[in-house]
Amino acid sequence: MKNTPTPLFLLFGLAAFFLSGENVFAQSEGIDSGDTAWMLTSTVLVLLMTLPGLALFYGGLVRAKNLLSILMHCFAIACLASVLWVACLYSLAFKGSGAWIGDLSAAFLKGVTADSNEGSIPETVFIMFQMTFAIITPGLIVGAFVERMKFSAVMLFSGLWLIVVYAPAVHWVWSGSGWMFNNGTIDLAGGIVVHATAGASALVLAKMLGPRTGFPKKLSPPHSPGLVMMGAALLWVGWFGFNAGSQLAAGNSAGMTMLVTHISAAMASLTWMVVEKIKTGKPGLVGIVTGMVAGLASITPASGNVGPMGAMIIGLLAGIVCYFACDLIKGKLGIDDSLDVFAVHGVGGIMGTLLVAFLGTEMFGGQGINADSALSQFWLQLKGVGVTVAWSVIGTILIVFLCKKTVGLRISEEEEETGLDIAEHGEQSYSL
After folding, report:
1. How far, in Å, CA of 317 to CA of 311, rounded?
2. Quick one: DSSP state of residue 64?
3. pLDDT-based confidence at 28, cuts 50/70/90?
């Protein structure tokens, strides 16, 4: 018997589908397919920021003998954060009616089904999107302790930090019952939740861990500026999901958020390049991409309220302030925050969080903030930053002491000389 052509089967199938009157592709009530598609895309973009974006960015900045350890840190933290997010973090961050912390009513995603909604998108998509934020935030802290911290301590610290510091901060700012959410504190995508927490904790951890051997006079330059640039480029692209995705919908607000995010990054990059040229005589590749990260971190909290003019101002200030903050932390204070986590992410995120009170007004092309209430909004922003930084510092100190008492914190001088790739992971990069 001759086989029936495939197109004929397709016609029969389509006819049966329409005649049946049933739509197998029907969405759950309240779900918007456009919003859902955008949030699925944003989730992938934010994960791209850590794997491989942040991993390559940080990996290129260290010595070659520690490259694999950076990649391992970022990958392992991504896995750990994902499991913890499902087990308890999502519930602690977004469930419950408390102003300071959620509850465990949705531990292991109890009650979450394929039909659960979060606004116009499936709750499963919202969970995944927020999970990618929980992945990258402790990943940022990696830059403070590169080349000298035990892998076991990295994992223990990251897990406890997510529970003690990150989950409460998320609840305060983004949960409907959180105290900052309800008093009107503005932080669209994580100036407080991500950058202030990670930056403050990174500074404390770097101080308690101690500097790398030879700091600051005998440190080697980044072993691969090319890797740094590739990682930074992935961060730039992924940041559109980070900021514009935080609007949780595909619409006008997401479009403006994407635009101002890009403008701030570009402006900060050029500003950092010019400042570096004036200070050192040469514009460097590592410098211009670090300026880009500073611009992105600074615009993050304000990206839902400022317009293009505000974004240019934020980018300009990020390129100047964060540049000199790097020298202040390492040169003046002598703290080996190795990859400038506090100077770039902490300072940038805090600065953007405070500036939104003024740059989000109509005077600067912004929206959502009345000029008459700008000063009161500023005090709200300052209070939110102050409490979050204080909590991050206290939580980090306690976690570091616990790590010291259990698994230990720092590798030996011999292991530091050998490099973490061999000493901690028994592997070696082909680039050596």
Report:
1. 10
2. G
3. low
What is the Cα–Cα distance from 155 to 70, expressed in whole angstroms?
13
Q: Which neighbouring-strand residues pair with 121?
A: 118
Domain limits at 110?
33-425
Under DSSP, the state recorded for 104 is: S
Encoded tokens for 34:
């456009």
Q: If residue 390 lies in a helix (H) or strand (E), which one and from where to where?
A: helix 374-406
Residue 214 in tokens: 């030879």
Give percent above pLDDT 70 in the chain: 93
**Length reported for the chain:** 432
Residue 26, domain member (yes or no): no
Q: Give a yes or no: residue 28 inside a domain.
A: no
Lowest mean pLDDT among 97-101, 212-216, 299-303: 212-216
Given the structure tokens 């940080």, which residue do they identify?
58
Write down the pTM of the prediction: 0.92
* CATH number (domain holding residue 382): 1.10.3430.10
Which one-letter DSSP state was computed for residue 188?
S
Whether the Cβ atoms of residue 297 and residue 318 lie closer than 8 Å to each other: yes
Its sign, for the CA torsion 27, 29, 33, 35, is negative
- What's the pLDDT band for 219 if we cut at 50, 70, 90? confident
Q: CA-CA distance, 349 to 295, in Å (whole number)?
A: 9
Q: Is residue 42 one of the residues assigned to a domain?
A: yes
Our count of domains for the chain comes to 1
Tokens representing residue 138 in the block: 């402790």
Decide if 294 contacts 246 (C-beta within 8 A). Answer: no
Question: In 281-302, which ranges are continuous DSSP H helix?
Answer: 285-299
d(CA 393, CA 411): 23
Q: Return the higher-pLDDT residue of 431 and 359.
A: 359
Q: Which is nearest to 67 in space by CA: 297, 77, 75?
A: 75
CA-to-CA distance for 190 and 25, rounded, in angstroms?
35
Cα 342 to Cα 345: distance, rounded to the nearest angstrom: 5
- The predicted model gives 396-425 an average pLDDT of 96
Q: Is residue 399 part of a domain?
A: yes
Q: pLDDT tens digits, residue range 124-157? A: 999 999 999 999 999 999 999 999 999 999 999 9
Count helices and strands in the chain by DSSP H and E runs: 18, 2
Q: Tokens 């990020």 appear where?
A: 318
